[in-house]
Write a structure and sequence with these properties.
246 residues; two-stranded antiparallel sheet; 2 strands
């Protein structure tokens, strides 16, 4: 059975951050999964030429880029370097959403694909507009809201920066990076980011299958084969929030 971190809500993780053994189990499982995903994508090495402008090549490039970001996030969080790790979540969104857009194979996406090969930037708003036209306003609005929230890591909003500060006596702030030791790094921040990473790995696995680079059965076998036999049990009863406060 897998670590319960795979299905953990990021806010709950932040409220109950001291499940270190379960988090360690998650990192072990995630490392195996991401390594095996990498092996599957290596099948496409030496199959595309430099001048190939196909959507298949674009999807492969973008998914490789996303996978590298996932692996980097995991490594950085193991080292408690959450500041850099947080900035990579939006990168994954942009790469996978762009791959989805190219995969749609519409007249407009084909034009944008050529623009992309010509080294032009395709804004994420193009994908959101595509979702609005093909799926609906509600889904496009939800996507825009999520993208806005995840972008706060990159734009370094006040709340995001506070994830790097310990609150001391009289609400005085201490920066978690002012010493060489990582002892001041907030466990809440690491726990929340690991839960986010779990969601992104699952999202990536679905995208791999949906874009047909890796068969869904292979993906399921990779996931199941990487999970440990016994789930590490919770050490603490989750704290429930009342009116937005712990």
């Amino acid at each position: 059975m897998p670590s319960f971190v795979w299905d953990r809500d990021p806010q709950e993780a932040m409220d109950n951050p001291y499940e270190y053994e379960a988090q360690n189990q998650f990192t072990r499982e995630a490392e195996k999964i991401l390594e095996k995903f990498s092996d599957e994508l290596k099948v496409y090495d030496m199959k595309f030429t430099k001048n190939d402008r196909s959507k298949e090549k674009a999807i492969w490039l973008l998914q490789n880029d996303s996978l590298d970001s996932l692996r980097d996030i995991l490594l950085l969080l193991k080292q408690k370097k959450h500041k850099t790790a947080g900035k990579l979540f939006r990168d994954i969104n942009e790469s996978l959403d762009l791959a989805s857009y190219f995969h749609s194979d519409t007249t407009e996406s084909a034009k944008k694909l050529n623009d992309w090969y010509d080294d032009k930037i395709i804004p994420h708003s193009v994908y959101r507009e595509f979702i609005k036209k093909t799926i609906g306003e509600k889904q496009a609005s939800a996507l825009a809201k999520y993208y806005s929230n995840i972008s706060k890591f990159n734009h370094r909003t006040y709340k995001v920066l506070l994830y790097s500060y310990v609150l001391g006596k009289d609400d005085l702030l201490a920066y978690d990076g002012y010493r060489e030791s990582d002892i001041l790094v907030l466990p809440q921040t690491i726990a929340m980011y690991l839960a986010l990473l779990a969601d992104y790995i699952k999202f990536f696995s679905i995208e791999l299958a949906d874009k047909q680079l890796v068969n869904m059965k292979i993906i399921k076998d990779i996931m199941q084969g990487s999970f440990e036999k016994e789930s590490v049990k919770r050490r603490f009863v989750p704290v429930k929030r009342i009116h937005g406060r712990s």
